[in-house]
Design a protein that fits this description.
alpha/beta, Helix Hairpins, Pyruvate Kinase, Chain: A, domain 1, 2 domains, elongated
Length: 298
Amino acid sequence: MAANTRDIRRRIKSVKNTAQITKAMQMVAASKMRKAQTAAIASRPYARELVRLLLPFSSLPSDDESFAHPLLQERTGGRELVLLISTDKGLCGALNTNLLREVAQFDPANTDFVCVGRKGLQFLVRSKCSVLADFEIKDNFSYFSAEAVAKFCMDQFLSGKVNRVSVLYTNFVNTLTQKVERQQVVPVRSFDVGRVALDDGDGSTDTEAVADTSEYILEPNQHDFLGSLLPHFIFFKVFHFLLESRASEHSARMVAMKSATDNAKQLIKDLTLEYNKVRQASITTEILEIATAQMILS
């Protein structure tokens, strides 16, 4: 019995140490998630103004030669480039599993990949998929980091190596829900940045913008204006997707660590109850042995 209680005490101590670690990881993930939310909220004003500038061009006829731009030209068939945004670390529940499951929807023979995150890269290497580049982006990344990733993908399209560029990422819906989404960024189909999915206190949860109905006077001309603005639009969309993915990662990890902490606390309760039962049985046995010996001696 003594050895049994000793083993139980050792298990209780081990589970308590694990609970302390998961609790600390939960707090760190919560802090990082809040920072990712703050960064996404801070990008809203720029997103609204960018969309407001581009919305008037969405109503122009498609056969307008002045509106023809390489980043707007649709191509059929050919290869597709997919920017896969995953996480560098695990312990974030089923986030990466759900994301990588969508990779099977692409034809490996006609698909190239660009990776952000080690988990996605490791999966693609094991699956023997074509990986053109791998970008390492830390938690406190800047817009210029996203611009480097987007520029590489855009150059692949402009050079004719691929006919379209899509982004596969995890969209942050709320703290408990993250949804895997696939968005085409090149060629540009619509001038929409997408939902920020974060509440800044005024009830607004997206980047909706109303087009300015006033007349635009463009200098030097419309084509040069789009040539300068469209790349920035694509860069910002990729930046937005990276923010969403980071918020999703830290949210999923926070929830997973909270669940692990709660399970550890419940396991400690169960082990403590088992320890008390074993200890009580040991004491009862010793009392019976003493009483029996007393009866024999008397």
